[in-house]
C-alpha cells in the first residue's frame, strides 16, 4: 500500500499496475459472508436438489434420469391450465397494482400535507394485518351474504347472489390488496428523486400537464414501476396462502399444485418439475419485461 | 439563423406584483417595465425574491396580487404552457431520457409542428449554439458548457416571446462562465429576444445586462444601467452588494445646499457634494470604491489627501489592494493596477502612504441600524 513512485507511474502509463489490497478483500468477504452463506444453504442448495429431483425417475430411491415427468406435465391440459392461470394472475395483479399505486405514490412523493404520514400508514397497513384477518375481511365483502351481494340484492339488481368468492377475481383482489405497498413504495422512492425542474421545463416549453406526465414524468419513473412490478409479479406467481384462502380450492395455482403433488400425492418428481416450470416461467417473463422496458423507457 | 424581427419583440410589464409563501411575503409589490429586446438582470442575495419573480413571469408561480403582462396580454390567468416562453434552468433540466436533438425539439413537438420543420429548426438552433452534429448524444455525454448551450438552444428554438434564465452560469467554473457570458450576450443580441435573467453574481450582472434590477427582501431597491448601479448606488446595501467597497464611519457636521461637511472616524474633515437625505448630527458611512482612491496623488490634483500606515497588502495578480490605517483604526483600502511588475517594488507594511480622495466619488449613506 505504498505511494506510487514517479518512476513506476511513468513506466506504467498505459496500464496502471493493479494492486490487490488484501485488507479490502478480507473486509469485503467478511461483510458478504452472512448473506452468501444464507443464500447458499437456504436457496442454492435446495434449488439444485429440486432441479436434480425433477429429472429422477422416482424419489426416493431413484434408478435413473428421465424427462418423462417434464413431458407429462407440459402435455397435460390440467397442468397447462394451472400454468396459464398462475401467470395470468401475476400479470393481472401487477398491472392493477401499478395503476392503483401510481397516484398514491405521486401523492406520497410530492405532497407536503400533514396528512401524508397517515396515507403512508394506510398504504402499509395491509402488511400489518394477518392473512387470516384479511381473508375474513374479504369474505365479509365478497361472500354470498356479504356486503356487495347484499347491496346488489337489496337494490334489486340481482336475484341470486353472485359467486364472488372462490373466483379468480377474488384472488386478484386479495393479492392486489396485500401487494400494493410494495408497488407504492417502489414508485414513490423514484418519483421523489425526480428533480421537479424537469416537469417545469416541459411545462414552460408548451406541454400541458397530461403531456408533461406522459412525455417526462412517466418515462423518468419507469425504473420505479419496473422494480415494483418485479416484486409484485414474483410474489404473486409464488403465492400460496391467498389463492387457497380466497379461492377456496377453486383457484388452483402452481404453488398450490406443488404442495399438492409433493405433500398430498407424495409425487416428488412431478412436484419438482412444476417448481422448475414456475421458476423458468418467472425468469422468462421478467427477461421479456426487462427487454421491453429497456426499449421503451428511453423514448 | 433564429432571429426575431425586432418589431416582433415584446416587453414584459410587472405591476405591484406580490407573492406570499405561507405567512412570508416573498415578493413585496414589484413593479418593473422591461422594454422589447432588452436584457434585464434581477440581482440580489438568495431569498431576495428574484427567482420567485422570474418564476411568476414563467407562470410557474401565481402572483397573489398585481398584474403581469407579456406584450399587451395580461397573463395572470394564462397557464405556463400557453405563454410561449423559453427558460434555462439553473441545472439546465435537460431530459435525461431523450437525446440532445429530442430535447431541443421538445417545444416544437409540443406545438405539433410538422417533422420536417422541426428538424430544420433544431439543426438551426444547434448550429447557433455551435453544437451542430451533437444531436444524437445524450445530455449525460456532454460537458457542463455543452449542456448549457443545449439548454439555450432548447429555450430559443420555439421563438419565445421572452427568454428567462435562472442562474444560468452558476454551475460552471470561472473560465467557462466568462466565456458563456459573452456567448449568451451575443446570442441574445443576435436573436433580439427580450431576456430576464436572475443571478446573485454581481460581475455576471454587470457584464451581461442592459439594466440591473437590484432586489432586497422582496423589493426592488434600485434599477439602472450597470454603470449607474455601480457608480451611483442608492443605498449602502447596493454599494456593498455590487463591487468591493470601503466604508468609513463619520458624522455630519453641517449641510450647505447638498454639500455635507463630514468629520470622519479617522479625524479628517471632508466636504462631500451630492449628499442627500442627511442632516447635521447624523451618523453616516462614507463609501468609496478602492479604485477611486489615488495612491500618492500629485500636488494640486484637487483631491483631499489623507495619510496613513500601510497595514496589509493583498496581491491579486492584475491589481494590488493596500489596506491603510488612516487614523484611529479606520482602514481605507486603495487599489492599484500592477502596471510595473516586480512585486518587490511594492511598498511594504509599515510604510507611510499618501492617499487621495476625490469628493465626488465619495458617497454618503445614513448609518444602518
Report what the structure shows:
- The complex is a heterodimer of chains A (299) and B (369).
- Chain A has 2 domains: 20-53, no CATH class; 68-297, Orthogonal Bundle (MetI-like fold).
- Chain A has 14 helices and no strands.
- Chain A has helices at residues 6-11, 22-53, 68-75, 77-110, 116-128, 131-142, 147-154, 168-193, 196-204, 209-220, 222-237, 241-247, 254-264, 268-297.
- The two termini of chain A are 47 Å apart.
- Chain B folds into 2 domains: 6-240, 3-Layer(aba) Sandwich (Rossmann fold), CATH 3.40.50.300; 244-366, Nucleic acid-binding proteins (OB fold (Dihydrolipoamide Acetyltransferase, E2P)).
- Helix content of chain B is 23%, strand content 34%.
- Chain B is built from 8 helices and 20 strands.
- Chain B has a 6-stranded mixed sheet, with helices on both faces. In chain B, strands 13-12-11-14-20 form a 5-stranded antiparallel sheet, with no helix packed on it. Chain B has a 5-stranded antiparallel sheet with strand order 15-19-16-17-18, with no helix packed on it.
- In chain B, strand 11 (246-256) and strand 12 (259-264) form a beta hairpin.
- The model of chain B has no long low-confidence stretch (mean pLDDT 89).
- The chains are: A mainly alpha (299), B alpha+beta (369).
- The A-B interface holds A 195, 197-198, 200-208, 211-212, 215-216, 219-220, 297-299 and B 58-60, 79-87, 89-91, 93, 95-97, 106-107, 110-111, 154, 158, 164.
- Chain B: InterPro entries: AAA+_ATPase (IPR003593), ABC_SmlMolc_Importer (IPR050093), ABC_transporter-like_ATP-bd (IPR003439), ABC_transporter-like_CS (IPR017871), Mo/tungstate-bd_C_term_dom (IPR008995), NA-bd_OB-fold (IPR012340), P-loop_NTPase (IPR027417), PotA-like (IPR005893).
- Chain B: This is Spermidine/putrescine import ATP-binding protein PotA.
- Chain B: GO terms for molecular function: ABC-type polyamine transporter activity; ATP binding; ATP hydrolysis activity.
- Chain B: Its EC number is 7.6.2.11.
Amino acid at each position: 500500500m505504498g505511494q506510487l513512485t514517479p518512476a513506476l507511474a511513468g513506466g506504467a502509463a498505459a496500464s496502471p499496475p493493479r494492486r490487490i489490497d488484501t485488507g479490502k478483500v478480507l473486509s469485503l468477504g467478511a461483510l458478504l459472508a452472512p448473506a452468501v452463506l444464507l443464500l447458499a444453504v437456504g436457496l442454492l442448495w435446495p434449488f439444485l436438489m429440486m432441479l436434480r429431483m425433477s429429472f429422477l425417475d422416482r424419489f426416493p430411491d431413484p434408478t435413473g434420469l428421465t424427462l418423462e415427468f417434464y413431458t407429462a406435465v407440459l402435455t397435460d391440459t390440467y397442468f397447462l391450465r394451472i400454468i396459464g392461470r398462475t401467470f395470468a394472475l401475476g400479470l393481472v395483479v401487477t398491472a392493477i397494482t401499478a395503476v392503483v399505486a401510481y397516484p398514491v405514490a405521486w401523492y406520497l412523493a410530492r405532497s407536503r400535507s400533514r396528512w401524508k404520514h397517515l396515507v403512508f400508514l394506510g398504504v402499509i397497513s395491509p402488511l400489518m394485518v394477518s392473512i387470516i384477518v384479511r381473508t375474513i375481511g374479504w369474505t365479509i365483502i365478497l361472500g354470498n351474504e356479504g356486503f356487495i351481494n347484499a347491496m346488489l340484492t337489496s337494490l334489486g339488481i340481482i336475484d341470486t347472489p353472485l359467486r364472488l368468492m372462490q373466483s379468480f377475481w377474488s384472488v386478484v383482489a386479495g393479492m392486489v390488496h396485500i401487494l400494493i405497498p410494495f408497488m407504492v413504495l417502489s414508485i414513490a422512492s423514484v418519483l421523489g428523486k425526480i428533480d421537479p425542474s424537469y416537469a417545469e421545463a416541459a411545462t414552460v416549453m408548451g406541454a400541458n400537464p397530461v403531456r408533461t406526465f406522459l412525455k417526462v414524468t412517466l418515462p423518468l419513473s419507469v425504473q420505479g414501476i419496473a422494480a415494483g412490478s418485479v416484486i409484485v409479479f414474483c410474489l404473486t406467481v409464488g403465492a400460496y396462502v391467498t389463492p387457497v384462502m380466497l379461492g377456496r380450492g377453486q383457484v388452483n395455482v402452481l404453488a398450490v399444485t406443488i404442495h399438492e403433488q409433493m405433500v398430498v400425492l407424495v409425487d416428488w418428481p412431478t412436484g419438482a418439475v412444476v417448481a422448475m416450470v414456475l421458476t423458468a416461467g418467472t425468469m422468462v417473463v421478467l427477461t421479456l419485461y426487462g427487454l421491453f422496458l429497456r426499449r421503451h423507457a428511453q423514448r | 439563423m433564429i432571429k426575431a424581427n425586432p418589431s416582433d419583440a415584446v416587453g414584459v410589464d410587472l405591476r405591484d406584483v406580490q407573492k406570499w409563501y405561507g405567512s412570508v411575503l416573498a415578493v413585496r409589490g414589484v413593479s418593473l417595465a422591461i422594454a422589447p429586446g432588452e436584457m434585464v438582470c434581477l440581482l440580489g442575495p438568495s431569498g431576495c425574491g428574484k427567482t420567485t419573480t422570474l418564476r411568476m413571469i414563467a407562470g410557474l408561480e401565481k402572483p397573489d396580487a398585481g398584474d403581469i403582462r407579456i406584450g399587451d396580454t395580461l397573463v395572470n390567468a394564462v397557464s405556463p404552457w400557453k405563454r410561449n416562453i423559453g427558460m434555462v434552468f439553473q441545472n439546465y433540466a435537460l431530459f435525461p431520457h431523450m437525446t440532445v436533438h429530442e430535447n431541443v425539439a421538445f417545444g416544437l413537438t409540443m406545438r405539433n409542428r410538422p417533422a420536417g420543420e422541426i428538424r430544420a429548426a433544431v439543426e438551426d438552433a444547434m448550429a447557433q449554439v455551435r453544437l451542430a452534429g451533437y444531436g444524437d448524444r445524450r445530455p449525460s455525454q456532454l460537458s457542463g458548457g455543452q449542456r448549457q448551450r443545449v439548454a439555450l438552444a432548447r429555450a430559443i428554438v420555439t421563438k419565445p416571446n421572452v427568454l428567462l434564465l435562472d442562474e444560468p452560469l452558476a454551475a460552471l467554473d470561472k473560465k467557462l462562465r466568462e466565456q458563456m457570458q459573452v456567448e449568451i450576450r451575443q446570442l441574445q443580441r443576435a436573436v433580439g429576444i427580450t431576456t430576464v435573467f436572475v443571478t446573485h453574481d454581481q460581475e455576471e450582472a454587470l457584464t451581461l445586462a442592459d439594466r440591473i434590477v437590484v432586489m432586497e427582501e422582496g423589493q426592488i431597491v434600485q434599477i439602472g444601467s450597470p454603470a449607474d448601479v455601480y457608480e451611483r448606488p442608492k443605498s449602502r446595501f447596493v454599494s456593498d452588494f455590487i463591487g468591493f467597497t470601503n466604508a468609513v464611519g463619520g458624522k455630519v457636521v453641517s449641510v450647505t445646499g447638498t454639500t455635507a461637511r463630514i468629520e470622519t472616524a479617522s479625524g479628517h474633515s471632508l466636504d462631500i457634494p451630492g449628499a442627500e437625505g442627511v442632516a447635521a448630527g447624523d451618523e453616516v458611512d462614507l463609501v468609496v470604491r478602492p479604485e477611486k482612491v489615488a495612491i500618492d496623488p500629485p500636488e494640486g490634483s484637487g483631491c483631499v489627501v489623507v495619510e496613513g500606515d500601510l497595514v496589509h497588502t493583498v496581491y491579486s495578480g492584475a491589481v494590488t489592494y493596500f489596506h491603510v490605517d488612516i487614523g484611529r483604526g479606520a482602514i481605507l483600502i486603495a487599489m492599484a493596477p500592477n502596471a510595473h511588475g516586480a512585486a518587490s517594488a511594492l511598498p511594504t507594511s509599515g510604510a507611510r502612504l499618501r492617499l487621495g480622495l476625490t469628493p465626488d466619488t465619495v458617497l454618503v449613506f445614513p448609518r444602518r441600524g
